Amino acid sequence: MATSLADIRARLQQQENKQGGNSSGGGDNAIFAHWNIKEGDTATIRFLPDGNSKNDFFWVERAMIRLPFQGIKGQADSKPVQVQVPCVEMWGETCPILSEVRTWFKDKSLEDMGRKYWKKRSYLFQGFVRENPMQEDATPENPIRRFVISPQIFNLIKSALLDPDMVELPTDYNQGLDFRVVKTSKGGYSDYSTSNWARRESALTSTETAAIEQYGLFDLADFLPKRPDETTLKVMKEMFEASVDGQPYDADKWGNYFRPAGVVIANAEPATESAPASKPAPAPVAEAQPESEEDMEPAETTAPVETAKPASQRAEDILAMIRNRQKQ
User: Fold this and answer.
1) How far apart are the C-alpha atoms of 203 and 214, rounded to whole Å?
2) Total structural domains within the chain
3) CB 101 within 8 A of CB 130
4) CA-to-CA distance for 269 and 254, rounded, in angstroms?
5) Taking CA atoms, which of 32, 164, 251, 272 is between 20 and 30 Å from 307?
6) Best CA proximity match to 185, nearest among 298, 324, 323
7) Which structural domain, as residue segments, surrounds residue 291?
8) CA R_g for the chain
């Protein structure tokens, strides 16, 4: 774990250089849904270090790929559904889905489709909610909350960390800084670009330090998806190809691996159990999480909507272009 702001700056700079050269589990209510605050409101939060001492940062990156399906196989009245699968680039591996999608950006006619299937980043933090403008139905006994931060807000956090005017780590218990999440709107989407760090340092209260002593800090990596094994990677690739091809979600094939949120699969393995010994043991079932307003940033997650052709016809056209290009 980084012990100083200089350490964090050095690691961030290393990442910047590397990128330039290469031109939510849990089931509890610990996540603070800051995207639900009203427009014009501000939530003040105080970030804490990661409980994993091997993590150089006080956050972890989460990368997911959304696979849309026209419906569920065998259900005539089913509506379109979406399944999220983990992008294995989180673990430094080659992602079989992105390996295909990256080639699409070489063809302008496939760029929109490429953005649709591109990985969606978010960042997991933890800390205290010091000022909450919402009335939550229930708050957890443990006041240390988790935060799912969008790239827009993360870039503000990262920029400030690289600013030489910031002297102390913002997670320091005695000289840290609060972060203000400010919700506005822009172009019909929620906008958080005016979010900012507090100008003055402040110490944790005795109640907050007591909570850390009592409950401890989360190991943020515990809330990342399980790393897919070889069998699960093959399932992910099969689902991706079926999604692009306009096929419905097949619960019989994929229900023990990944399923849409809120969809009950008959005879599917429970999410917390492994398959019987006679079958390859799949990763725990990953259910797609409800989309938050954080997910609706146009540059990160929303591809232009095509209306000229039905989805099935568009998929056929795209697949034909991909296959023709591969033959060349």
Assistant:
1) 18
2) 1
3) no
4) 11
5) 251
6) 298
7) 5-327
8) 21
Beta bridge partners of 131: 44
Residue range 241-299, pLDDT digits in tens: 999 999 999 999 999 999 998 776 666 554 433 233 333 334 444 443 434 444 433 33
Read off the pLDDT of residues 190-230 as tens digits, 9 standing for 90 and up: 999 999 999 999 999 999 999 999 999 999 999 999 999 99
Both structure tokens of 97:
């889905």
State how far Cα 108 lies from the chain centre.
27
Whole-angstrom distance, CA of residue 247 vs CA of residue 71 = 8
User: What's the CA gap between 257 and 231, in Å, rounded?
Assistant: 10
pTM of the entire structure?
A: 0.73
Question: How far is it, in rounded angstroms, from Cα 156 to Cα 69?
Answer: 34
Task: Give the CATH number for residue 80.
Answer: 3.90.198.10
DSSP 174-203: TTB--EEEE-EEETTEEE-TT-EE-SS-BP
